Amino acid sequence: MTMEAMKPPRRAHTTVSLFGNFGTHNLGNEYTLQAIIHNVHKYLPHAKVNCICTSPREVTASHQVPAFPISDRLVKAPAGEERRGGNGAVAKFIRRLLVRLPRELARWVEAFRTLKGTRMLVMTGTGMLGDFGIGPFDLHYEILKWSLLAKARRSKLLFVSVGAGPIAHPLSRMIVQWALSLADYRSYRDDFSKHYLASIGFDTQNDFVYPDLAFSLKPELPAPSRRNGGGRVVGLGLMDYYGNDPTGNSSEATYQQYLEKVTTFLAWLLERKYAVRLLIGDATYDTRIRGDVVKKLQERAFRYDERQIVEEPVGSVEELIDQLAATDAVVATRFHNLVLALMLNKPVVALSYHEKIASLMAGAGMAEYCQSIHGLEVDLLVQQFVKLEQNSQILKSSLKQTVEKYRETLDRQYVRIFRDVVEAEQRPHGRKGTGTDG
Q1: Mean of the per-residue pLDDT values for the chain?
Q2: Quick check: helix, strand or coil at residue 330?
Q3: Level-2 CATH architecture, domain 233-390
Q4: How confident is the model at residue 264, as a pLDDT?
Q5: What are phi and psi of 307, to 5 degrees?
Q6: Is pTM, for the whole model, over 0.90?
Q7: Which residues pair with residue 120 across a beta bridge?
Q8: Which fold has domain 12-217+405-426?
Q9: What are phi and psi of 142, to 5 degrees?
């Protein structure tokens, strides 16, 4: 017998593919990806992890995992490219038939190759099953495509702590329900998502609700930062908010109303000698609001000590965590500004533009510190903030317990979804499990 024959057979590494809108500088999404990569390594230390995402180059650079594009369709074409070849109905039909259809078939083949060896395809958190800025032939179509190909590869398909709804377009509803129906496991990040899907006719009876995946990774706290004097610091989390029209049409009037009201609240804080950190949650889309708020104060000829406003650049989730950690309380609009603040044990007031934010605050026992961004009332916001300050210590004690409970709950979910893989890896080499298509 040769030496080669005497060696035990090599066990193929499990490959876990994570799917999501990552690499686009949405800092909440990036933290979600960090969290699940961390936990895959924790529970499946020998597993290979890769990411199927919107911007693979950025994901590989930031998270040190191989990454592949969801589709080159999601990359915006150069200006004017879509108009080449004529605009008539016949020309459009011929272009679709001769160019787009073969190109899309090639994308399906490439995606099928990408999934080779994948044991689990995990749809990871984020609001991928709503239609805020998503059309039926955008991310929803891609979710269905990759779900179908995962089943063709005999990979397990999991939707893990995903957000869902509202979904206005009937075709998007159909596509989302079809993709979910293929899943081996489904969980939602809040009761709203589960109930919403049930309300549009999808059977969620055997599905689970677990907290947002971001809660499963404890933030690394920076060294204590220098404070602006001895006063309290408020983090004011801003967003380039134009309304939540599912078609993505922006409303400048909606933005201006939001700007006026958050500027009024900022002035109220400055009058009372708070230091204010202006925060954002998306380094790509929140490019306008911070400058406009300061400009609006100047237009009002509002007098304040310029050292009261701290406006630092943010290009990574680590920088955002550092900025949040330097506050005593947070008033914010973006969902993961609020999530990260809660994880850092900061009392928060939420300006809710989506049901997920109201669900987050209710789950944390802070529903009374949340109001809808639609018809935002500054006087009510002031009252909520004053009450938050008065109850700060009590709230911090309660929040600490809630966040720890969320982390423990998510640990149980990871055990649940990875149990089959762990058991398969523990079997003797000679016994075969269900395995996946190689």
Answers
A1: 87
A2: strand
A3: 3-Layer(aba) Sandwich (3.40)
A4: 97
A5: -70, -10
A6: no
A7: 16, 156
A8: Rossmann fold (3.40.50)
A9: -65, -35
